[in-house]
Amino acid sequence: HEATRKLADDGILRGGSWWCSQGGWPSPNPKAHTEIFYVCRGHGCLSDADGVKHYFGPGDTVIIPKGHTGRWDVQEDIHKVWAVNDHAQIEERGTPIRVKVIHFQDYHANIGAPTGYATTPTALSETIYNVGPTKVGIWNAAPGSVTKITQTQRFWFLILKGTLVLAADDDGTVQVCEPGDSVMLPQGWSGYVHVQDEPVKKLWTQAQ
């Protein structure tokens, strides 16, 4: 059994959530887009066309490139939050095309916590995937950080920790984003990103 819910769609970049019970199935048809998902709970495995297996569990980020074929296996009921970039060309050059799994302990350990934010708030970003028109990363920011941004490309993110406030330039709209919230910023959006009273960590996807 499975259920999916689309949360945002601008025609190129889409976001949503998916739940699936235990089971397995082949995926012989080339994937039509690049998918990025964050595992909220459950365990599973994606196999490449040559049988190489990629296991994942809670807190992991998984990237399935456009053109991938292989197999899905869900060992424990899974809930994931996903984003897909519906780009035109297959960008991965390897044969076979391989799934990428970035385990929770790896990217959280690498980026660490912001330093020096008692007097000089900081924000750090680490890119964990950058192929063709799809870029994925982890953003970590300290309490009190205020960043002015103008989106030159489509942008989606999932709040993993902390509270973040978005204030749009055009109409002054303010949105409060908390853990578990996913946000789509359209190309051309501009405004301020304000981190509240605790550090914020988010998973982000940028699509051309």
UniProtKB/TrEMBL annotation:
InterPro entries tied to this protein: RmlC-like_jellyroll (IPR014710), RmlC_Cupin_sf (IPR011051), UGlyAH_Cupin_dom (IPR008579)
Coiled-coil intervals: none
SUPFAM superfamilies: RmlC-like cupins (SSF51182)
Lineage top rank: taxon: Eukaryota
Residue ranges of every copy of the (S)-ureidoglycine aminohydrolase cupin domain listed in the record: 10-81, 134-202
Pfam families, per database record: Cupin_3
Protein name per UniProt: (S)-ureidoglycine aminohydrolase cupin domain-containing protein
Source organism (scientific name): Amphora coffeiformis
